[in-house]
Structure formats: structure tokens, C-alpha cells
Amino acid sequence: MSSTEFPIKEASVHEIQIAFKQNKLTSRQLVEFYLTQIESLNPVLRSVIEVNPEALFLADEADRERNTKSPISQSSLLHGIPILLKDNIATKDKLNTTAGSDALLGSVVARDAGVVGKLRKAGAIVLGKASVTEWAAFRSKQQPNGWCARAGQAVNPYVKSADPGGSSTGSSVSVAANMVTVSLGTETAGSILCPSSFNSVVGIKPTVGLTSRGGVVPISTRQDTVGPICRTVSDAVYVLDAIVGFDPYDAVATRKASKYIPHGGYVQFLKADGLRGKRLGITSYRFFGFPNNSENSHAFELHFNTLRHKGATLVDGMVIPNFNAIINSVFNDQDIALLAEFKLSLNAYLKDLLTSPGRSLADAIAFNKKFSDLEKIGEYGQDLFLEAEKTNGMGELEKKTLRNLMEASKNGLQKLMKDNMLDALVTPLSYDFLHVSGVLAIGGFPGISVPAGYDHDGRPFGICFGGLKGFEPKLIEIAYSFEQATKIRKPPSLGP
């Protein structure tokens, strides 16, 4: 392995690009470093399912492009940068796409996922596939966060006994442990924001449709979204800039959401004074609020002071009419809708594969029953699969739940934000208070999780800035300004 004096561990995309330009680092050296990290750490952390056998070839190609000053190497911040993809994001290469399940091992996709095509166009290097809570945590309610048949149980790099979060577990753990520069995750309800918080990294859950779901193993076209998981807000924004936009394989949603993409992209909103003039909402409502008796209460009080010091106005004491009815809708109606949507969308995805061991949810259920030892079905079950298989399209019950969800979103977060003229809602993302993700999910709304501290055991926790559709510019300004003012993230010690 070739060595470099450039300190790769914890290096940002911007720092790496400067090292490239100063000939202090090559993409080959960068990829070799991460391959060594994966070889060393993955037997314990289990956050990477597969490494791309072509990764070094792609790194050499990136180095050649840089040496010949090809246009893409001069213009793209992601050129020559390694990225790990959650294992439900399709790649048309030598890597599998299995959502962590042996049931899809050996299946052949028709094409790269839309976001992967955009990453390749930007010159990023697909380093491999990150582990995932199997089937994006939609096989069984008994599944632990971060477990899948193909990789086993992913481990939190800060505290081995702590919850590593799900379902974009591997993407978050790998970035936190410096096994890759940046990564992609997906979220239906919490799967980017939750593991980002638990592993002290930054996660951006974009407005639904801002990034394509074409070629992503689905749960719900209404709620699924693809977003970056990185060590810094700026790195996450560079990745977001690369993956947003229209995709013919997710045409309706990406065309509709394209109106939210600002001219000049998202990098322009990385402002150190981005909190100045912002109105931020803080509520005491269950699932939204900062609990007074929490171990982390003092940390959040300090953060509130920081937000004020940086020029933001904090709006407290807000009232949401019929709040309990709205929350009930979020959790009950969402479950009903997702079960029916999952069966329809998964069956469509499986039928589009060129080759596959199974062509339907029913086939996946049969596989699990046949290979119960392999899949540990006896331990974790497949109750969500079985419930979804009983559904029969979007009937009257499902249509009613969708209407309820729309009303809950309209009369809940949308009303709260508009009545109080908020730029963002600020909520905790700690081990007991994750449920704002469900509220963001039903409306297709964006959120950003930023590291906010560590509890007495060393477990990380985050703070979430959430907004309405297309609020990404405001949320980026807020998150970046908060991050620059606090600089809380520290790498895991990974000691015994």
C-alpha cells in the first residue's frame, strides 16, 4: 500500500480536494486507506456488506482524469471521492443489491439507481454497499436496529452495547468510524435521522422527490427518500447537490420536486451566520419537545443559548389544536398505509429486475420460511411481511388513512410552522425522543440531524432541524451555522 503524509482520518471532502490539487494525496491512496480501515474494523462493526472489487480501478481512473485535467475532475467536488451506498440502492456493477437479505442475493438490476448515475457522473467512486436493517426495517417489528442476514448485527462505534440506529445503520457507522468519506442512506420514517444521531454524524433527509427513488428497494413512494450521511454538514451538502434532480425512472415525484432546487445549488447556503434572523420553534409537546428531566437537558439549554447568540429567535409555547388526534394518526394511519404501499411497490421493483430468485413479496416470504435458520426467522420473524401480504391494493381503508395523514400533516406541522412564521422546528434526537421523524415523514418534509453531544455513557445524541417541503436552503443555513458554532462531533475511540 502506498503511504501519504496527508491525515485522511476525519478529513472533509474540501480538505481532500485541496490535497488532490497539491499532489499530497491520490484517489488510490484514499481508497487503499478505507479498504484497510474496513478490513480492520468491519469484523467488529459489521457496517459494510460488500466492497466493490473495482474500487481501485475506479480510483486509478479518477487519478488519470485529474492528471489530464479533465473537465469533471476540475469542476466536481465529489470527483475521486469514495462513497458507500446503503444496500437497498441499486448498482449495475459487480456489487449485489439485496436490502441485506439473502432472498435477493444474485439478483441482477436493470440499471444503476438514479442517484448512483448522478454520483458516477460527478466522478464519485462507489466503494461498496453498507449494511442495512434488513428490508429497511420492514420485515419484522422484532428486528433489532442494524441487523441483517448478510452482515449480522452492526455495532455502534462509540458504545458497543448502544443502539446503532436503523435502517441506514451501515452508512452511519461507516462514516463515523472513518471507513469511507461519505455515504448515502434512505428514509421512510427515521432511517436517516435516527442512525445519524446515534452515531454522531450529519444526516439530511430531503423533501420527498428531491432525490430519485428509481432503483431503490422501496417501502412507500409517498414517503421514501434518499439522502446523504456524512461527518460534516458541508460534506452532506456536496453530496445532496450531486444527487438531486429529475430522473425518468421516478418521473412524477422528481419533476414535481425539482421546483424546490435553488439556482446555483445548495453549497451557497453554507453560511456561518446562517442562524441570523431565523425563527426556530421549540415545543413542549410529547414527541416534539425537549424533556425537562432528561439527562441531556443541560446540553440542550446550552444549545438554545448558542442559537440565540448566533441571531436566531426561539419561539416557545406554541399550541397545536387536536394535537393528540394528530399524533394518533401519524402512528396508526401511517402503519396501515405503509403495509399496502410496501406490497405494491416491492412487487413492482422485483418484477423490474433482470434476474431474481423471487418476483414478489410472497416469494420473499416463502424464501424466509424455507431458509429459516439462515435468516434467523425463528428469532426475529417476518410479521410485517405477512401483514403486508394480506393487503389487497389501496382499498377504502387505505384511502381513508391517506386522507387522515394529509389532514394530520396540514393541521399539525404545516399549521404550526405557518402560524408562527417558523424557518424550522427544533427537536431532540436522543434515544427516547425520535418521533419527530414520523411527523416529517407523513408530509414528505425534510430534516437535518447534527451531532449535539454525548451522554454519561458516551452515547451520541443529535439535534434535528425540520421544515416544510423545499425548506432545505433554510435548514442547511441553520444546521451549518449551529455546527460551526459548536463543533461537537468527535471520532469514536474504537478501543476495547
From TrEMBL:
Residues 30-430 form the Amidase domain. InterPro entries: Amidase_dom, AS_sf. It comes from the Eukaryota. It comes from Camellia sinensis var. sinensis. This is Amidase domain-containing protein. Pfam families: Amidase.
